[in-house]
Amino acid sequence: MALDNTQLVLMGKALAKAQPTAPVAYSYGDEKFSYTQLNEAFRNEINEIAGTYSLFRENKNRIFKLFEEIIDDVLPVRVMEMYKNFAEIKTFNQGDKPIFT
User: Of 20, 47, 59, 101, which alpha carbon lies 20 to 30 A from 4's?
Assistant: First the structure.
């Protein structure tokens, strides 16, 4: 059973935010899933749309959009956590010119 894009994004975000050492990484209703189970389920879903080269070619825009949505939600938070102790980080709008003093 292939999931739609919204479900894949939710699963990918849950996996990206999950702690690999936690006993329960994700729960849905009464069911609880470990990080390994969640990772395996996500891999199986990705294999259904990109398991062969021809499937990848056919679905590459969908795959890139999927990972872009997942990374856009998770990566900025992780980068800020890593660099906040030794760098001053400022965010600027598109087109603004930062001025350093």
Answer: 20
